[in-house]
Design a protein that fits this description.
Length: about 450
C-alpha cells in the first residue's frame, strides 16, 4: 500500500501547502485507486486534517531542524506516517516500512533515513510526546489558536463542546423523499436490508443510520427516494412555508440538497429557480435534479441559472419571488466535523471578507422579493458576525424588513433567529433567520423617533 501512502501525502500537501480543498483533491486522486485503497487514503487524509494540530506539534518536536518548503512533500509524508501510528493503529512495522518505502516513489531517496528515524523515535518516546501535546492548547483541542480564540469569544459557555464536536466523526444522515414514501416505510425498508436507522425528531423526513454505507447501497437512491443530507440542512426547506403557486428562489444553490428538498416538499410551485455562479458546482445541482426527476423536461417550472446572484440584472426577469432561500457562502465553521480541512484553509480575515459578501447578497436579493414575501437567511457558520449581527444590521438599514420569529424548539435563541451549534440534536452547526418584507409606509415609528 506504499502507493496509497504516496497519494495520501500528495493530497495532504495540496491542502496544507497549496490551499486546495480536501474534497476536490480526493476526488481527483480516487480515480486511480481500487475500492480498498480509496477507503485507506480517505481515512488517512481526513484523519491528518482532523488531527493536524497535534501531529504537527509532535512532528516539530521530533525534527532537529525544519524541513524546507522545497521538500515539503516529505513533511506531508511524515504526517501520514505519524497518523497511522497515533490514531489508525496500523501495525507499527507496516506503518514505518511502507511510509519509508514511499520516499522512493516520491523521488526523495535522501529522506528515507529521516522518515525511518522520525517514526521510530516517535515509537520510543510515544508517552512523553503525547503528554507534551496534551499540555498545548492547539494540540489538545486540534484547532489553530485563532480558531480557538474566535470560538471562545463567540461561545464562552459552549466553546469546549463546539471544539470537541468539530473533531468528532459526523453521523450518516439521510433525507427521505416524502413524495415517494413515508419516513417510517423507508426505515422499515432499510431494516429489511439489514441496516439500522432512526428518525431525527427535529425534522419531518430525516433519518440517521447506525453506520455509514456507500450511497449505491441505499435502497431507492437512484430513483430519488432518499438523499444524503445533514439534519440541520433539512430544516431550511421546512421553514419556508411552501404553498402551491409560489415563486421560489434558491440562491447559492449548489450542491442542490436544499433545492431538491424544496421540490420534494411542494411539487406545485409556480416557479422554482436555483442560482449558482460556479459552473462545475451547478452541474452537481443538475445531477441531483436528474436523479430526483429523471429528466429536466418533466418540470418546466424549474430553472437552473449559472450566474452571480448579486448581479440581478443578468438573470432576474423582474417577476418578484414569494420565497427566497439565501444559503450564503460562509466560514463553514459549523461543518468542520464533515470537512476538517476547513481548520487549515480558513484565515482570520476570512470572516470579515465573507460577511461583506453575505451583506451584498442580502441587499441585492431583497430587491427581488415580493411585498409580504419571506427571505430565509441560512449559514453553516457559528460566528455572530456572519449571522445575527449581520441580519440585525440589515434590518436596521431596511425599513421594509422585519424579523419573523422562528417558533421552533430546536437550537439556541440568538438576538435574531436561531443557532444550532455543532453536535446539537446530532446536527451540524447552522444559523437560521426569517425576514419578511413589509410595507415601510405602514411601519409604526420607533420609540426613539
Amino acid at each position: 500500500m506504499s502507493n496509497s501512502r504516496v497519494i495520501a501525502a500528495q493530497i495532504i500537501h495540496h491542502v496544507i501547502y497549496e490551499g486546495k480543498s480536501l474534497t476536490d483533491s480526493l476526488n481527483s486522486a480516487m480515480k486511480t485507486l481500487d475500492q480498498r485503497d480509496r477507503a485507506f487514503v480517505q481515512a488517512i487524509c481526513y484523519g491528518v486534517c482532523r488531527y493536524y494540530s497535534r501531529l504537527a506539534f509532535i512532528l516539530n518536536l521530533l525534527l532537529k531542524k525544519p524541513i524546507s518548503n522545497k521538500e515539503s512533500i516529505v513533511y506531508a509524508l511524515l504526517l501520514v506516517g505519524l497518523y497511522q501510528l497515533t490514531e489508525m493503529h496500523t501495525p507499527q512495522h507496516a506503518a514505518v516500512a511502507e511510509t519509508v518505502e514511499a520516499t522512493l516513489k516520491l523521488k526523495k531517496p535522501w529522506a528515507r533515513g529521516l522518515v525511518n528515524a522520525i517514526l521510530r523515535e516517535y515509537l520510543r518516546r510515544e508517552q512523553e510526546l503525547n503528554a507534551q501535546a496534551a499540555t498545548n492548547l492547539e494540540a489538545n483541542f486540534l484547532h489553530p489558536q485563532w480558531w480557538i480564540a474566535a470560538i471562545q469569544q463567540s461561545w464562552p459557555q459552549h466553546w469546549q463542546t463546539i471544539l470537541q464536536e468539530n473533531n468528532a466523526q459526523p453521523p450518516f444522515t439521510l433525507r427521505v423523499n416524502l413524495a415517494h414514501k413515508s419516513r417510517e416505510k423507508y426505515i422499515n425498508l432499510l431494516e429489511n436490508n439489514g441496516y439500522v436507522a432512526y428518525p431525527i425528531p427535529e425534522t419531518t423526513s430525516g433519518i440517521v443510520l447506525e453506520s455509514a454505507l456507500p450511497v449505491e447501497k441505499l435502497p431507492g437512491f437512484d430513483q430519488g427516494d432518499v438523499s444524503v443530507q445533514d439534519g440541520g440542512a433539512q430544516l431550511a426547506a421546512e421553514l419556508l412555508d411552501l404553498k402551491p403557486g409560489l415563486r421560489v428562489l434558491d440562491a447559492c444553490a449548489a450542491p442542490g440538497g436544499k433545492f431538491m428538498h424544496i421540490l420534494e416538499m411542494e411539487s406545485e410551485l409556480s416557479t422554482c429557480v436555483a442560482i449558482e455562479k460556479d459552473f462545475k458546482r451547478m452541474l452537481l445541482v443538475r445531477e441531483n435534479l436528474l436523479r430526483l426527476f429523471s429528466t429536466e423536461s418533466n418540470n418546466s417550472n424549474i430553472s437552473l441559472l449559472c450566474h452571480d446572484a448579486t448581479d440581478i440584472a443578468s438573470w432576474w426577469d423582474k417577476q418578484p419571488f414569494d420565497r427566497i432561500l439565501l444559503d450564503a457562502p460562509c466560514s463553514a465553521s459549523g461543518v468542520i466535523r464533515r470537512h476538517p480541512d476547513i481548520k487549515l484553509l480558513r484565515k482570520p480575515n476570512d470572516i470579515r471578507t465573507l460577511a461583506a459578501i453575505q451583506r451584498q447578497l442580502l441587499n441585492k436579493l431583497w430587491l427581488t422579493l415580493k411585498p409580504s414575501g419571506l427571505l430565509l437567511y441560512v449559514t453553516c457558520s457559528i460566528f455572530p458576525e456572519e449571522n445575527a449581527q449581520l441580519v440585525q444590521e440589515f434590518l436596521s438599514a431596511h425599513l421594509d424588513a422585519q424579523e419573523e420569529k422562528l417558533t421552533v424548539s430546536w437550537g439556541l435563541p440568538a438576538t435574531i433567529g436561531r443557532q444550532i451549534i455543532p453536535g446539537m440534536h446530532g446536527m451540524d452547526g447552522f444559523y437560521f433567520a426569517k425576514i419578511k418584507k413589509i410595507d415601510a409606509a405602514k411601519t409604526p415609528p420607533s420609540a426613539s423617533a
